[in-house]
Amino acid sequence: MKNNDNHLRLFVYGTLKKGFWNFDRFCTRAIGIEPATTWGRLYQLPAGFPALEVPESSVLATGTDDPLADTRTQNAIELPEYGMARPEGDWDLVHGELMTFTNPGFDLPPIDRLEAFDPNGRCVYKRVLVAVKTNDLIRPVWLYTMQPPENPRLKRIFSAWNGEKLIEM
Fold first, then answer.
1. What distance lies between CA 98 and its chain's CA centroid?
2. pTM of this prediction?
3. What superkingdom heads the lineage (predicted)?
4. How far apart are CA 24 and CA 13, in angstroms?
């Protein structure tokens, strides 16, 4: 389904969610926030925040340093027929929030900086476009993904991150 508006949509699953510590600094200009899901693996990092890994087969596009071009890309994507079919492998349905922004040129660059996203260099997170489901609607939406560090003590989170630091017993 193509979208003809100029709104940028962002799936958040950690500190940018409403009620968490980065929401007030970066997301109060969102005109819509709704529960959403996508396929991936969510991990608790030792620093206390989560990282999401998504299947390569789910990536529809990779973010650039031009928020307006990325919005056009998002709005031009027609989702594959499989939509939100479970990808092959050990992937979970990850719960988060879909945020809608009306001024991507103003709203996205600070979030890109927070996530250390640099499409022209080495970066902690990549911003990628994937299929996200809200209620019964499936849309192409940007999110930040990370390859989890090779760490046997890294904790996998099933479903949703609640902001609590996981304590190993």
1. 8
2. 0.88
3. Bacteria
4. 15
How many CA within 13 A on the CB side of residue 32? 12
Residue 111 is which amino acid?
A: I
SS3 for the chain is: CCCCCCCEEEEECCCCCCCCCCHHHHCCCCCEEEEEEEEEEEEECCCCCEEEECCHHHCCEECCCCHHHHHHHHHHCCCCCCCCCCCCCCCEEEEEEEEEECCHHHHHHHHHHHCCCCCCCCCCCEEEEEEEEECCEEEEEEEEECCCCCCCCCEEECCCCCCCCCCCC
What's 8-157's CATH class? alpha beta
The gap between the terminal CA atoms of the chain, to the nearest Å, is 47
The tokens describing 151, both together, are 């760490």
The pLDDT tens digits of the residues spanning 22-78 come to 999 999 999 999 999 999 999 988 888 889 999 999 999 999 999 999 999 999 998
Contacts of 162 (CB under 8 A, 6+ apart): none
- Residues in contact with 80: Cβ distance below 8 Å, sequence separation at least 6, in sequence order: 131
